[in-house]
Amino acid sequence: MIAGFEDISRQPLAHLPTPLEPMPRLTAHLGGPRLWVKRDDCTGLGLGGNKVRKLEYLMAEALAAGADSIVTGGATQSNHIRQSAAAAAKLGLGCDLAVMTGRVPGTEPVYDTTGNVLLDRLFGARLHKVDWRADRNQVISGILENARRAGREPHFIAYGGSSVTGALGYVRAAMEIAWQAKALGFTPRAVLHASGSAGTQAGLVAGMAAYLPETSVIGIDIDGEAARVAGDVSRLVEGLSERLGVPPGRVEVVGGHAGPGYGVPSPAMLEAVGLAARLEGLVLDPVYTGKGLAGLIALIRAGRFAKDEDVVFVHTGGAPAVFAYPAAMEGAIA
Ligand SMILES: *Cc1c(COP(=O)(O)O)cnc(C)c1O
């Protein structure tokens, strides 16, 4: 138990708990271990995903600060900015998004208009396009300044919602996984997921250290920057450990599964997306969860887990991006 955790202010936004379900057909296909999926693609708000859990704590902080609008940023097909826009809409806050173009090379023609981008606009967010290579922080400072000059009270939310406050959402997710697994009669050997801006992994590491200390948390780097991700996770874990008084858990980030780079399709991603779809009826995405499951499949094939162990894959969402990669997705279809 984490003393005082339930007293931290949280703005309810997500459908919780999300289901923890077995994946028997994928398990049989791979010949074990027993695979489970934590359905954080089903957090509800704005088509769901992992950022909604972070936003419960981030929006509570914004509202406590008297904010009337939020400012955040991300890549063109960012799931974080889409879920932030939905949260702002639901809470009646303004929403300014720095949309970073040019991060992903070789995108398809619809990449800039469909999927998450269409949803951002539908939720009423103001989009500010900025070249990925430009000074992004300066652009965000400019948006904040303009909003203040217009008499608004803007509140900045970190990229990916990955601050210590945002990561609290995944401490809560770890608590959920612990009691759900107990009720289902197993102790996970490992919890595995796609890791990018590090808040999800940091929350899971800190939460698991408190609730299931025998369970490994394994982040699959989807940025092609495993060392940077591990450093960011460690810093956030330290912050959580201080804030919550929990022991700092072990940080493990596995590289080698990002393919050619962030947001660029790879053959292993396409295999994983296809298997999840045909064997379990799950929609994974090409940027995060497809590469996350590809990492898990590679670890299984390398013999990392015994056949009778239980492994939980966290489905962190991202399905809207499928529609921004229509030609690439043909490669996932049998
Ligand atoms: C943001 C995101 C992640 C990575 O979570 P971080 O907390 O940024 O590491 C994984 N999957 C999906 C679908 C995401 O949108």
Topology readout:
Layout: E1 20-22, H1 24-30, E2 34-39, H2 51-64, E3 69-75, H3 79-91, E4 94-101, H4 116-122, E5 126-131, H5 136-149, E6 154-156, H6 164-184, E7 190-195, H7 199-211, E8 216-221, H8 226-244, E9 252-254, H9 267-280, H10 289-301, E10 310-315, H11 326-329
Parallel strand pairs: 2-10, 3-4, 3-6, 4-5, 7-8, 7-10, 8-9
Antiparallel strand pairs: 1-2
Helix pairs in contact: 1-9, 2-3, 2-6, 3-4, 6-7, 6-8, 7-8, 9-10
The structure holds pyridoxal-5'-phosphate.
Ranges where pLDDT stays below 50 over 5 or more residues in a row are none
* Ligands bound to this protein structure: pyridoxal-5'-phosphate
Beta content comes to: 15-25%
Largest sheet: 6 strands, mixed
Task: Give me the count of strands.
Answer: 10
User: What radius of gyration results from the CA coordinates?
Assistant: 19 Å
Residue-averaged pLDDT: 97
Strand order of the largest sheet: 1-2-10-7-8-9
Helix share bin: 40-55%
Helix tally equals 11
Estimated structural class: alpha/beta
CA(first)-CA(last) distance: 46 Å
Structure, described:
There is one protein chain. The chain is an alpha/beta fold. Helix content is 42%, strand content 16%. The protein is built from 11 helices and 10 strands. A 6-stranded mixed sheet has the order 1-2-10-7-8-9, with helices on both faces. Helix 4 (116-122) links the parallel strand 4 (94-101) and strand 5. It binds pyridoxal-5'-phosphate. Residues 49-50, 79-80, 160, 162, 194-201, 285, 288-289, 316-318 line the site of pyridoxal-5'-phosphate.
